[in-house]
Amino acid sequence: MKHFCLIIFSALLLASCAVDTECRQEIKVLLGVQMAGDSLRLSADSTTLEHTTFTSVKGMSVRGLGRDSLLQESNLSFSSLRLPLRKDADTTGFILDYCSLEDTLMLRYTRQDTYVSLACGCAMFATLDSVWCTFPQFIDSLDVLNTAVSTAKENHLKIYFHKPQ
Question: How far is CA 7 from CA 4, 12, 17, 19, 155, in A?
Fold first, then answer.
């Protein structure tokens, strides 16, 4: 009876130490980008200019700089984006194409590999150091809302732009 209890106790002890192979946490780290803009256009009677503010964009496509992959299609309307940062570099660029005009959004950041769990592995968190736009054609300004890029689904950057006429 003593050996039987020892065997049962050992089996329970080993079963409680089983490795969980399923990752139950979000480890995808994406940069949240919010869009905001305005435009000037002639009124219906063509006598005055009307100022319009908008937060949803249609007709803009986004792709990674130096990559062919399309991250956002131009036929979709959106007010915010989730963009991936490069894990092998401290700088990432995106080409924003809007009404046949292209702007390049550049981000410089510090990477931190963070251990999540045995099943999930590591996630690359980032801290934004600087954000800029090269030769802006429709982007008016950039506003950093949050420098800490993690797995939380929040906005980190706000892009203000003018809608081309």
Answer: 5, 9, 16, 21, 55
Give the chain's radius of gyration (CA, Å): 24
Domain assignment present for 114: yes
Structural domain including 126 reads 25-162
pLDDT tens, residue by residue, 60-92? 889 999 887 788 777 677 888 899 999 999 999
Rounded-to-integer distance, Cα 49 and Cα 55, Å: 20
Total of domains in the chain: 1
**Residues 117-162: pLDDT tens digits?**
888 888 899 999 999 998 888 888 899 999 999 887 899 999 988 7
Please tell me the pTM assigned to this model.
0.74
E strands in 75-100: 77-78, 80-84, 91-98
Residue 11 in any domain: the answer is no
7 located within any domain: no
Residue 6 lies in a domain: no
